[in-house]
Amino acid sequence: MRLGEVTAPRVPRLRTGLGEVDRVLGGGLVPGSLVLLGGSPGIGKSTLLNMVLGRLAGDGRSTLYVSGEESAAQVRLRAERLAGAGGGTPSALEVPILAETDLDTVVATLEAERPDVCVIDSVQTLHDTGLSGAPGSVGQVREVAGRLMEVAKRLDVATVLVGHVTKEGALAGPRVLEHLVDCVLQFEGERERTYRTLRAHKNRFGSTNEAGVFEMRDSGLVEVLDPSARFVGEATRAAGSVVLCAMEGTRPLLVEVQALVSPSELVPPRRVCNGIDRNRLALVLAVLGRHAGLSTSTSDVFVNVVGGVRADEPGADLAVALAVASAARGLVPGAAAGPTPAADAGGDERPPLPVACFGEVGLTGELRAVAHGDRRLAEARKFGLSSVIEPDRCGTLREALRVALPRRR
Ligand code: TYD
Ligand code: MG
């Protein structure tokens, strides 16, 4: 049979009512599919899934929350917060709960209840008594997921497995699950910060380019519908800070990138980064030293993408370079990069709007174009950031530094 002759039915979707979650899933949960949600402990996986089930229950869908980790009473307390004033998920308490770690009981319950959607929190806590090995061991996790997969397909239950992520960032044990499940989602952020991003790393029913941004509040997670406005509004205007026009999937996102450069006592000096790749930082520092006359070989360098956002893309290079150079020279980016309303008014010491930038830094010190340049520019303009430093404007890193960090007269 030729592929063109194969009938491909349209994939139905269960909309969760949380727009950001639906978008990352590619339009909602697919009945009978298996989704793995990874994230470090305390990041908000249970909260997110309580909300998802609560919304679906409020929509008349049958749901089931299997908790192997927390008692029914603990889950109820969380649901109360979500259902309470300002929680936005009034039906969170409608969701049936099964506090259980025995796989056979869970499977039997699924067969009896046949819910539309089921959450297993977490895959590492369930175990098959017929199998040796502690819960969470590779053998157990594989068996648990395999059985649940079979049940999900047979009964058409959309199943979400929660998986804990180890320090190294791998889904603990369940790396073995990634090829098995239909969709791998990752919930990221820093526990101390309020922002969280949901990303798809694998999706058989949609793109892996989407990301959703949430904020953790007292009453649960709230979708951040316009993260750029949030991050630009909070951006500091000081030496060591620039705004990066990043892409979160198909959506442009403005985030603040900060750097601190200070004399080091250590050999080799410290390189600490949050939200960007260490190797990219090393590359950018090397190019700054070799092609822009800015050596950091005796300095500690710290780089942070504010808000716990990850900017793992080559387009972030220029922002890292400008933030580091600005920190090292003690110059506020864009201090003279064009007249600002405040400067025109005269006498106002207020720093101008932050400088925005994007672009890849090449090994010979050149700036290279990155995908979606026009959309990144448009996003910056939307927030009044008229001074955008990017590869079309500056050909080299040296030139970009000259434009962004003019020396004071
Ligand atoms: P949780 O969803 O239990 O994380 P995970 O399942 O990923 O381990 O929630 C983590 C933290 O979120 C918890 O320490 C308390 C906090 N939290 C809030 O700030 N607001 C809320 O409404 C809820 C339910 C939790
Ligand atoms: Mg949890």
Structure notes:
With 409 residues, this protein is an alpha/beta fold. It has two domains: 3-225, P-loop containing nucleotide triphosphate hydrolases (Rossmann fold), CATH 3.40.50.300; 229-404, 2-Layer Sandwich (Ribosomal Protein S5, domain 2). Helices cover 29% and strands 23% of the residues. The chain has helices at residues 19-25, 45-58, 72-83, 103-113, 138-155, 227-234, 278-291, 317-329, 341-345, 373-382, 397-404, and strands at residues 34-39, 63-67, 97-99, 117-121, 158-164, 183-189, 195-203, 211-217, 220-223, 241-248, 251-263, 271-274, 299-305, 356-357, 360-361, 367-368, 388-389. The strands form three sheets. The protein has a nine-stranded mixed sheet, sandwiched between helices. Strands 12-13-11-10-14-17 form a six-stranded mixed sheet, with helices on both faces. The longest helix is centred in the middle third of the chain and has 18 residues, at 138-155. The protein is elongated, with a radius of gyration of 24 Å. The N and C termini lie far apart (74 Å). The protein binds thymidine-5'-diphosphate and magnesium ion (MG). GO terms for molecular function: ATP binding; ATP-dependent DNA damage sensor activity; damaged DNA binding; hydrolase activity; zinc ion binding. One of its GO terms (biological process) is recombinational repair.
